[in-house]
Amino acid sequence: MRGEQPGDGRLRGVPLIDGVEKVTGRARYTADLEHADALVGRIFRSPISHGEIVRLDVTKARALDGVLAVVTGDDCPHTYGVLPVAMNEYPMARGRVRYRGEPIAAVAAIDAETAARALALIDFEARELPAYYTSDDARAPDAVLLHDNKPGNLEREVHHEFGDLTQGFAAADLVREDRLSCAEINHGQIEPHATLAEFDPLTGRLTVQSVSQVGYYLHLMLARCLELDTSRIRVIKPFIGGGFGARVEVLNFEIINALLARAGSGKVMMELTREETFLTHRARPQTDIKLKLGMRRDGKITACACEVVQRGGAYAGYGIVTILYAGALIQGLYDIPAIKYDGYRIYANLPPCGAMRGHGSVNTRHAFECLLDRMARELGLDPFAVRRANLLQAPTRTLNDLMVNSYGMAECLDQVEKASEWRARIGKMPRGKGLGMACSHYVSGAAKPIHWTGEPHAVVNVRLDFDGGITALTGAADIGQGSSTMVAIAVAETLGIALERVRVVSADTAITPKDNGAYSSRITFMVGNAAIDAARKLKAILAAAAAKKLDARPEDIDCTGETFHVSAGSQSQLSFADVAREALVDRGAITVTGSFTCPPEAQGGRHRGGAVGSTMGFSYAAQVVEVSIDEATAHVSVDKVWVALDCGRAINPLAVEGQIEGSVWMGMGQALSEETHYAEGLPVHASMLEYRIPTIAESPPIEVHIVESRDPNGPFGAKEASEGALAGFPPALVNAIANAIGVDLDALPATPDRIMQALVERRRAARLAAMRRAAS
Amino acid sequence: MQKDGPRPKKQILRLKLNGRWREDAVAENTLLIEYLRDTARLTGTKAGCDGGECGACTIIVDGKAVPSCIMLAIRCAGRSVETIEGLAAQGRLSRLQQAFHEKLGAQCGFCTPGMIMAADALLRHNPHPDASEIRTALSGNLCRCTGYVKIIESVQTAAGATP
């Protein structure tokens, strides 16, 4: 069949296919599912940061009228986790607790009041151990180990070196080393965690509906922890109120609730409070970065040495990947001839960190882009000129063997420079106002999946039956980013049919093909390609059916606007319904399978950890941030953001814009106001008032420019658009603050107290200098 | 922590919910959001925090936007309560719903019902708000997906549309 013009613009820029449900309140999120007949599940959590459990007595709780199940660590002797090599966590503590708020036991009762009374009846006693809340304290030589097999409380260290570092620094005209730090932050998705589990003791089947971004991981971990055959489990994703990485890992409460459902032989609804949602955490770690760059007078980077220390929390989680990403993604953005990376992931007595939007890359990128600006200033170079001096040439491979197949960085720089009128305004703004810029990038899915099974990276089924409807089945979890809409567009455009004819069924392990899930911005690239592959297979079947009726060759058949016709000459046409009917005559209901696989050469270097960072396509972004600072109060307001992102091709420009705006803004939260605070391990930030997510009142206009570099492997040329722009905001802001008031901030977030401190220190330094001058 | 003791007394609550009067037996300590979600089964109203912080539960009581998670249900006796489910009438989306749909004012959609109700209350007393008035009116409603850009556009579009 000929004439396929995928991504021809006909369907570009459409509202989400599930948008009506969202604006009418009909969309059912986990807590909205029917559960009048369900028990209420609640978790008993550790009141201390670190200790050995001396006594855990649940007898009284179990005896309370209305309590149907109580479970403890004794009920699950299996660890769980996302990385097969680093599962060191039990759903409920066994023998030892390692952070305040760690689950110890759980109850299922007839109502919330009874469950709360049962929790109060649990008798818990522990022998306290020293607890560590900073990386330095946890690394102290005499520190008690959180995990006996991890000396120095070091979860993982990474040492990578590429190119000739000595020669690189020797070739530099300027070498500068700075230390920067970034506070721990949280995803802050608006939907608190919730999960509904139903266990049927008669059939031995378990159904879990949960907030997971990766239903397949949850499915596997439920089987492992409950010792159930995977074929007896079903995991369904309802509507999800935001993910951002919070729900990529299997979370303790999801397993605990399933254990309760089995123990209580029924259905249990567990809705976590906002405080518990914060406690579950798995977000971006507190990070210390020591970065040294060498630069020639013309702005060319000659060498980079970077040390990163991440305070990972009490358990491994995604930590190994995070500390690897932090080093691997120094590369792929600029041409750097020599790079050394030393990463340290530390255990501390705090809730475990994990993946968060821009996973691993954000804090290192922050340091890198801040240092680039500071060195540009020392050398008298424009920040844009420094970036332009270090551009890559695609296609290429980085020193750590990452593929760069398309590269719209130069155009991103041009667009934001022009849109922000940078050249006319930089250095000419009144005191207290400033401009800053930075670049960033991110992967379009990990080319080597975490669970390496040899299967394709993505599989999509497309069905056609008597009703003439096209149903795309995908395991990919739409978490609000619009991935189901993307699948519908990919199928409709490939087939040449109306978007309204396509429905998407997603993320139900009983129905949809396995998918690696919504993380690392993999869905558009991988699932999009698989959807196109499936649609092409269906199209071939339809073309054969049309050819038979039109007495033509299948390769001469085309379908546009739901009408099949022979391309050359002939006037005869067939409607989609006619062709569908004809196709079903021979074979009945049709299901085709499409898939996508990243080839081995895309899967990263051979060095240890070399798979992390590998991807088929990097997105690229540049942004300019304009700020105003009140030097009396040190309050920063962001007046405007100009951002350009190279997403290869915008399959749905409306959704791409939304993703870019959202990611830039999330970077703003990290840059301006968001940070967690613990008092002796007690999270004092664990509410939406204390954890300062920007409100609409302080959020600036964001002007988005989409750059389309047409990736050779992306679906219709597309790459990711949801994460790449995030990491540019914090450095662009800090660079803008430096531009406005001449203060270089080394710590995020740029809160008024930190800026005031910097201003006070600068005044003190100026006074001391003046006194010294006077004295001499 | 809850103490053992008698269950709270129930009252008959009569209120106008999305244009229709109804009566329910409601415990005195039942929050309005619990009444809406569990008794009336109107789950469009969301709980996003532990009380009064995120705005996801915003509904309209007697024409004013209020957070339903820090209001007792029995305080609504005799009053008119409107939720997101009441907005689409005769098979048509309201202009705010239409605009939030078309302009992508909703991504994950969890804050959307509260956001739309807060915007609806705004447009009732100020049919043509400027961006700054929209920012003020919606400043109690957190969204984590959109960066608010398309939310402001959605409200402006709805304000420009004929009702």
Describe the overall structure.
By secondary structure, chain A is an alpha+beta fold. Chain A has three domains: 19-27 and 450-597, Aldehyde oxidase/xanthine dehydrogenase, molybdopterin binding domain (Aldehyde Oxidoreductase, domain 4, 2-Layer Sandwich); 33-129 and 191-241 and 247-280, Aldehyde oxidase/xanthine dehydrogenase, molybdopterin binding domain (Aldehyde Oxidoreductase, domain 4, 2-Layer Sandwich); 286-448 and 603-760, Aldehyde Oxidoreductase, domain 4. Chain A is 29% helix and 25% strand. Chain A contains 19 helices and 31 strands. A seven-stranded mixed beta sheet of chain A has the order 3-5-1-12-9-10-11, sandwiched between helices. Chain A has a six-stranded mixed beta sheet with strand order 7-15-14-13-8-31. Chain A has a four-stranded mixed beta sheet with strand order 18-26-27-30, with helices on both faces. In chain A, helix 9 runs parallel beside helix 10 (361-379), helix 15 crosses helix 16 (576-587) and helix 17 packs across helix 18 (729-741). With 163 residues, chain B is of the alpha+beta class. Chain B has two domains: 10-86, Ubiquitin-like (UB roll) (Roll), CATH 3.10.20; 95-160, [2Fe-2S]-binding domain (DNA polymerase, domain 1, Orthogonal Bundle). Chain B has helices spanning 32-39, 95-102, 112-125, 131-137, 149-160; strands at residues 10-17, 20-27, 58-61, 64-67, 80-82. A five-stranded mixed beta sheet of chain B has the order 2-1-5-3-4, sandwiched between helices. In chain B, a hairpin with a 2-residue loop joins strand 3 (58-61) and strand 4 (64-67). In chain B, helix 2 (95-102) packs across helix 5. Chains A and B meet through helix 1, helix 3 and helix 17 of A and helix 2, helix 3, helix 4 and helix 5 of B.
